[in-house]
Amino acid sequence: SLSDKAMERIEFRAFCCLLLGVCLRPGSAFSIGLTCEANDSIYYIGEWYFLDSDHCTQCECTPEGAACARTECTTLPAACIHVSHYPSDCCPRCERIGCEYRGEVYELGQNFQPSECEQCTCEMDGIARCLVADCAPPPCVNPVYEKGKCCPECKEGPNCYVDTSRTQVIRAGDYVWVNPCTKCRCHDGQDVGYWEGNRVARCVRMQSCKVVKETP
């Protein structure tokens, strides 16, 4: 026997069809014997429903049986970084787009500086692309690294070590006599790239010069 709820639906549809002229399927829409079974439920001709096992599949109960069609989900944006998939939904939802870089999230088109030497942009494809500064070798032996600045600075100006002992420092262009016959000069670094690898003054021994040894 039909439940009271099922009888109410049949009576309501019959009323709509006979008195209002609104019938989903004239002649067979309210035949009690024609039903569809799904989701542990009974559906009548003309009813639509989603499958509990697949929320992307929607069916209509017809005299020939269930006619179903599956919804194809659209591709989520490439820049989607937060996807939610609710049990009642067919397709996943993109909750947020942007770029995720080192644990931080940035908006599309946003410029940001994750470190002193990096300049980055959150591109429209969700990828953060960065330019890293290439610091030139500092023209001194005692560069200073300051917070907030990428490249070191020579607070005392360009300079050199007098010799490989690295105990004495002289300014660029200056010279010093290390002994009566040897003069060492710190290059002035006018040539591009000259400071790279040149941290020691250039020493020249004077010709025909003899160092007189002190007698005890």
TrEMBL record:
Lineage: Eukaryota, Metazoa, Chordata, Craniata, Vertebrata
Domain (VWFC) ranges: 97-155
GO cellular component: AMPA glutamate receptor complex; extracellular space; synapse
Protein name: Zgc:113531
First and last residue of the signal peptide: 1-29
Entries under InterPro entries matching the protein: VWC2/VWC2L, VWC2L_C, VWC2L_N, VWF_dom
Keyword annotations from UniProtKB, A to Z: Repeat, Secreted, Signal, Synapse
Gene behind the chain: ZGC:113531
Main location: secreted
GO biological process: negative regulation of BMP signaling pathway
Record Pfam families: VWC2L_1st, VWC2L_2nd, VWC2L_C
Compartment(s) where it occurs, according to its Swiss-Prot or TrEMBL record: Secreted; Synapse
Native species: Latimeria chalumnae (Coelacanth)
